[in-house]
Amino acid sequence: MSPNRPINADVPVPEPPATATRAPAGKAAAPASKPAPRRRSRRRQPIPGALKAIAALVLVAVVFIVAAIVGGSSGGEQESGRAGPAPTPAPAGESTAAETASGQSAEGLGFPTVATGNTTRVGGSDPAANAAAVALAVFPSTTPAQQPAAVTLVGDDDWAAGIAAAVLMAAPVRAPVLVSGADEMPEPTAAALEALDPQGDESTGGSAIFAIGDVAGPEGEETTRVKAGSPAATAAAIAALRDRLFQAPPAHFLLAPSDLPELAMPAAAWAARSGDPVLFAAGDSLPRPTVAALERHPKAPVYVLGPSSAISSKAVRQIGKLGHEAHRVSGEDPVVNAVAFARYGDGGFGWNVNDPGHGFVIARTDSPLDAAAAAPLSGSGTWGPLLLTDSATTLPAPLREYFLDVKPGYTTNPTRAFYNHVWVIGDQEAIDVNQQAEVNALAELAKIGGEG
């Protein structure tokens, strides 16, 4: 390590935060396959679309990030007649700028449930709302230059398609994932799509929409549809689309479990970061669509995500027989598995995040479609790996230990230090404020040695 790099040795373990709010009940363990997204009946109130002053943005707490980008140019007019960002739902309990100005409490201001010094929450009640907010955080869309050329629509009941489709967020396509239904688009998706206003370009083959499976989409837009089937078939079809759009072979493949979504979730972040396609398998054999995708690129190494109980050693040997190098990245449970992938590095593959100065994303293990929703955060901004928590109220010990290992520190000058930032995905029913506060403390820059 360079002598100028922050020293993390002997950083004191932060005390767990005091519980100041009522914690919601914990969630049930993740189902074995294709769980439906969490749906809650709470209806959110829209934030007006007019331009807000900087002070108001601060008061609203910046983050259901769409709020920070709702609005147009200085005169409130849109450039070239294009539609500006659409109004977007605000997190429950968040007050408007007018309310905060009148003297609401810190909780009413949106702190700390929305943002802390080292964390930012995307507080949607389901993956559709989270995907819309993330897409507008990455592509603010206040000018045409900030709009994506295309977006990808995936079904609200198809987590595997969402994880595989995250590869289209990588350059040169850079299409964020939005979530739609079979018959109609959810309101957050429709609002985000209106704001993003994709037009298609050369990098997208002229398409403004990539629709995976039978999902509702906007009328009149140039759309490329990808037929959905089994996780393996859908992922192979997306990999073929990726090859056509990227016009280059993949550097690597990532093979994820098709029947254990909580183990497959971290693959979405890496696909968005790298452009490496995600394929699926389970048990002792490789599905035929997976084999066909691997055979198109026999020189690309394959990295198997998850333990042998999910994808067996026999299946890994089959990869070798196809002529590919095969490597396994795994942990004994979803939380440890995600940490192992965040730590892993092998040449050009893997995050290799073992020191401070990085971004991170945290989601719940029982909402696999949130991995796809959050994937654009791993392919832009602070480019961080996806980490997982299995509880609404308690930070898992392996995740706490990992954050301690990469906790930033400084000796004399904090402005020259490295910093960590963590995106928290979901509302308080998914990850409550106490857990967010603990993550904030673990990400806080700490003074090490020297005089106080």
Describe this structure in words.
The chain has 452 residues and is of the alpha/beta class. The chain has one domain. Helices cover 29% and strands 13% of the residues. The two termini are 25 Å apart.
Write the layout of secondary structure elements.
Layout (H helix, E strand, L loop, with lengths): L53 H7 L5 H4 L27 H5 L17 E4 L4 H12 L12 E5 L3 H7 L11 E4 L6 H10 L12 E4 L10 E4 L4 H16 L6 E5 L3 H4 L1 H9 L3 E4 L6 H9 L5 E4 L7 H9 L4 E4 L4 H10 L15 E6 L4 H10 L7 E4 L7 H9 L3 E2 L10 E5 L7 H11 L2 E2 L5
Parallel strand pairs: 1-13, 2-3, 2-4, 4-5, 6-7, 6-8, 8-9, 10-11, 10-13, 12-14
Helix pairs in contact: 4-6, 4-13, 5-7, 5-9, 5-13, 7-10, 9-13
Structure, briefly:
By secondary structure, this protein is of the alpha/beta class. It contains 15 helices and 14 strands. The strands form four sheets. The chain has a four-stranded parallel β-sheet with strand order 1-13-10-11, sandwiched between helices. It has a four-stranded parallel β-sheet with strand order 3-2-4-5, sandwiched between helices.
Over the alpha carbons, how many angstroms does the gyration radius reach? Answer: 21 Å
Name the overall outline. globular
Low-pLDDT runs of 5+ residues are 1-108
What count of structural domains? 1
Mean pLDDT: 82
Helix content: 25-40%
- Number of strand elements: 14
Which percent range describes the beta-strand content? 5-15%
H/E topology pattern: HHHEHEHEHEEHEHHEHEHEHEHEHEEHE
- Give the terminus-to-terminus CA distance: 25 Å
Main pleated sheet: 4 strands, parallel
For the largest beta sheet, what order do the strands appear in spatially? 1-13-10-11
Count of DSSP helices? 15
Judged by helices, strands and strand pairing, the structural class is alpha/beta
